[in-house]
């Protein structure tokens, strides 16, 4: 294996690890579907349909991954969700 191939392989592994975080949204009995959908559109840049699908998954499954990416990108998004009264965490 050449040095260039080894470097590219290491770079790909680093990129994959860097985007391994996700925001998980949890179900609650307080927030309405409309509030959850509007908040996902605002905080996570979802389309209305994508946000609606996530809201239904959270309702029926108890939780749903709503955004993946780097921790630096996810932290302010998760903070917006929490400030809106939703239950979410970065894992």
UniProtKB/TrEMBL annotation:
Q: Does the keyword Transmembrane helix feature in the UniProt annotation?
A: no
InterPro entries noted in UniProt: ClpS_core, Ribosomal_bL12_C/ClpS-like
Q: Which organism is it from?
A: Cellulophaga geojensis KL-A
Adaptor protein ClpS core domain location, by residue?
A: 21-84
Q: What is this protein called?
A: ATP-dependent Clp protease adaptor protein ClpS
Can you provide one Gene Ontology molecular function annotated for this UniProt record? peptidase activity
Record's keyword annotation contains Protease: yes
Question: Which keywords has UniProt assigned to this entry?
Answer: Hydrolase, Protease
Biological process (GO) annotations held by this record are: proteolysis
């Amino acid at each position: 294996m050449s040095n260039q191939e080894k470097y590219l392989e290491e770079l790909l592994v680093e990129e994959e690890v860097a985007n391994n975080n996700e925001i998980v949204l949890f179900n609650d009995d307080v927030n309405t579907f409309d509030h959850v959908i509007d908040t996902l559109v605002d905080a996570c840049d979802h389309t209305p349909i994508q946000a609606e699908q996530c809201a239904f998954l959270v309702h029926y499954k108890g939780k749903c991954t709503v955004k993946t990416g780097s921790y630096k990108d996810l932290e302010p998004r998760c903070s917006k969700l929490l400030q809106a009264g939703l239950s979410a965490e970065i894992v």
